[in-house]
Amino acid sequence: MNRPRRYRASKLAIFAIAVTSTGCFRYVPAQLDTTPAGTGVRIMVTRQGADELASVMDVDDNAPVINGTVESVQGNDLLLHVPVGQRQDGFMVTKINQTIRVPTGEIVSFHRKEFNKTGTAFVMAAGLALVTTVVFFIADPLGNSTTPPDDPPELQLRLGLFSIPFGF
């Protein structure tokens, strides 16, 4: 009986996750000369710039995009702090970063990383909806008890194929 309602709720949860998957940050166009050091950026470079950087890091020739943190601008060069790998010792994971020089003449587009209030609100709402849906699925069988009134009060938690009785 509750199958259509649960089906709609699961479709809504999947839709909410898909809509909010872009999450808490976004990249907005910015100017190189007004971006302070320590700002996260995404830059697209020319193919020639990608060829120059290929010896230092992996850059896709089809879409030469580099994510990093601005360290400084020195003359016609942008010094960018970029992740180049990671090292794992047991449970400890250490990111390996490197500072690279990118000629400003090779930069095609420059975007600054910015906190996205709307996306974050949607992610939080989707999380709340997911938790509410899970609680609803667990609590719904408790409300539809078929125990006769003369039997001792007993709660049953039904999860798929399993039923866990709780007696008082």
Textual characterization of the structure:
- The chain is of the alpha+beta class and 168 residues long.
- The protein folds into 2 domains: 1-24 and 116-168, no CATH class; 26-115, SH3 type barrels, CATH 2.30.30.
- Helix content is 30%, strand content 40%.
- It is built from 3 helices and 8 strands, in the order H-E-E-H-E-E-E-E-H-E-E.
- It has helices spanning 3-19, 47-53, 117-143; strands at 25-29, 40-45, 65-74, 77-89, 92-103, 107-115, 154-159, 162-167.
- It has a 6-stranded antiparallel sheet with strand order 1-6-2-3-4-5. The chain has a two-stranded antiparallel sheet with strand order 7-8.
- The chain starts with a helix and ends with a strand.
Structure in a nutshell:
This protein is α+β, with helices and mostly antiparallel strands. It has two domains: 77 residues, no CATH class; 90 residues, SH3 type barrels, CATH 2.30.30. It has three helices and eight strands; from the N terminus they run αββαββββαββ.
Helix-strand makeup class = alpha+beta
Average predicted confidence as pLDDT: 76
Sheet of most strands: 6 strands, antiparallel
Quaternary structure type: single chain
Features:
alpha+beta; single chain; two-stranded antiparallel ribbon; 168 residues; SH3 type barrels
